[in-house]
Amino acid sequence: MRIILLIFSVLALTFSATAQQQKPKNIIVFIADGGGYNQMICTDYYLKGSYPTSPLAKFPIQLAMSTYNGSLRNYGATCYNSRAFWTNFSYGMAGFTESAASGTALATGIKTDNDVIGLDMQGQPVSNLVEVAKAKGKRAGIVTTVPFSHATPAAFCSHTPTRRNMTIIARQMIFSNQLDVIAGVGNPWFDNAGNRIAKGVFKNIDSITFQYLLFNRRSPWFFTESRDEVQKICTGASSPNKLFYLAPVAMTLSQMRPDTSVIPFDIPINPALSTLAEMSVAAVNVLDNDSSGFFLMIEGGAIDWANHNNELPRLIEEYTSFYNAIDSVVAFLAQTEQLDETLIIVTSDHECGYLWGPETDGNKFTTPLNNGKGNMPSAVYYSTNHSNALIPFFAMGPASDIFYSYADETDSVRGAYLTNSEVAQAVKMLWGNTASIFEADPLNNDNPVLSVALPCQQAKVQWFANGKPIESANEIQFSIQTTVYSPDTRFSCQITCGTTQFFTSEYSYQYE
User: CATH number of the domain at 25-431, out of 3.30.559.30, 1.20.120.550, 3.40.720.10, 3.20.20.150?
Assistant: First the structure.
């Protein structure tokens, strides 16, 4: 036992030294929302006729990852048991995470309850990777194929008790000064086919904020709905300081377009909409304007939506789009000599659809059947919801081997695996941690409430106004009395975690 412990200690020191010597300048996290091993197998079979043949097959770090929650609340799961999974087909469907909770784990390093965005199980805000990047003077962005204020992008840059607070999430994203790029869908004036509608549907963004983006000349955002503008940014013909691309479509770039697909791409995709690859390259081209580096999360969000609907052709379409985005970003980074200084992580937040081969049941698990390139593989969806299955994890670039030190559990089929919260824990080991101020309810301008995202879960808090401590202001939230504090008051916060102190940057609550 002593020899084994000594070996693990040496390994830990080795990984720690590696992390210190090779800290990445940039980090990009690709998330195939709802994607699992069999979704990738089906896509590779259709595109190439064999597996593995995707861009991920060449990634040097290939592990598995568990996705369970911090509690059983809202049908969650609190563990993954390899033996139970592979001997009982129903085990994987008994309890599972969803995008808010798993996104929060990936973005903060803390597991939480289903439905929760950026908070721990006690309701305390936890610092996310966008906030960490900004604290280091880096730029940050979010790209997705679903509404920009949906659960996964929200988890990386906002804090709220429920993912359903999408207009609050949108305001936190737009006005917090944490993001430099937002690209996605959720346009209130278009339907799922990309047709303009007579009456706006303000579910993903409120009407006042949308008008602000459209018409306020003092807004720092370059706001566009044009694919041509995104393509100009891709090529460097245009390079705004802050980019907000809101595609002219309601809920997804292409997955929810009308009619039912029999094979992938049999129904044309709206050419007015940017592809995920275009949005991703444009995002990098905006973020790399600053030599300090950047953090970027890129989500193939509609992979999950296709799985929920058990639409295998559309699932293959969405994964193809995801692969193209990875290829395009890697090629752009290589072309601009940034690849060697960029840590690239590719994973999912959970599996969806419980996709397997035919006749899977009990302790019999079959993989999808290969029917050759260009032919639909034989596969069966056994659920319309998420599962607790392990999902694939890939990494490449500086310090990517740090994830080996977290993959300390072994599955009988998938091999070594880490858990989702360890992704952010590893990034925080590389880049450090932070505390950050945000508005808990940015829709309420009459009685503003500030909150602080914590770098630790047992923290002492002290609020300041214009550099002076506020007496008895020691809670996570601080309600601003507008009769006492003018809108240009600069608030800050000191957070104490044991013997370590963190200081937030100053925050003014007045919007433009």
Answer: 3.40.720.10
pLDDT 10s digits, 383-420: 999 999 999 999 999 999 999 999 999 999 999 999 99
- Please determine, for residue 322, whether its predicted confidence score (pLDDT) is greater than 60: yes
Residues 45 and 316: beta-carbon distance below 8 Å: no
Burial class (CB in 10 A: 0-12, 13-18, 19+), 503: middle
Residue extents of the structural domains in the chain: 25-431, 436-503
Residue 4 tokens read as 């084994």
Q: Which residue has the tokens 């789009």?
A: 321
Model confidence over 113-146: pLDDT tens digits? Answer: 999 999 999 999 999 999 999 999 999 999 999 9
Q: How confident is the model over 456-510, as pLDDT tens digits?
A: 988 999 999 999 999 999 999 999 988 899 888 999 999 999 999 999 999 987 6
Contact residues for 437 (Cβ-Cβ < 8 A; gap 6+): 450, 451, 452, 453, 491, 492, 493, 504, 505, 507
- Backbone phi and psi for residue 422, each to the nearest 5 degrees, phi listed first: -75, -15
* Third-level CATH fold of 436-503: Immunoglobulin-like (2.60.40)
* Rounded distance between C-alpha atoms, residue 384 and residue 361, angstroms: 16
**Is the preceding omega at residue 55 within 30 degrees of 0, hence cis?**
no
The one-character DSSP state at 494 is: E
356 sits in which H/E element = strand 355-356
